[in-house]
Amino acid sequence: MFRQAPYLVAFAIVTGAGLLHGLWSDRWQASDAPEVAAERLRSLPLTIGDWEGTEMELDGMQAQRAEIRGSVQRRYAHRASKQEILVVLLCGRPGPIAAHSPEVCYPGSGFQQEAARKKHQVTPAPDAVPMPFWQATFVKEAFPVKEQLRVYWGWNPGDGWKIADEPRMAFARYPMLCKLYLIHRSLAGDGATDPCPEFMNQLLPAVNAALQPTS
Question: 16 versus 131: which is more confidently predicted?
């Protein structure tokens, strides 16, 4: 089972300081798009292929400070392998949602980034349009073992999943923004296969269907 502390960092990434910087994203327009998208998140299924999800609650005070309009936080476990992946999906105004990244917040919690982030393309079907995400690995010395987190993240302003070097600037013109994290914990050097790429091929179509406007 997961130890909770490392995964609380995922929420801290989007609830830390710097929220005032995002307020300028409302200068052009006010919109109910965040609330509409937040309501749609509720339809994301708990069962996705061979993965079973368990609901986890976000801290209410932190969610209010980050102006999160809707969220899904779940631990998905594979029925056969028992591997687990933490999924965090947030929706709100672009400024607060775009703020911060794992590269900034994980080192502040004792984790070291192993290498520069890289692009990971999710292609659920051969003819599907690739969906880009950032991916990075973080490690932390935790006697007697070294803890390892593989983190995937990307944003969706309503027209597909995207990555950006400067997300606050890249998504400021949109009325709402969703952010998705996948986090897999393992022991460094244990030879375990990263289950996130395979799971993302199943998860992303379900997330996209949940966010799709109903006719």
Answer: 131
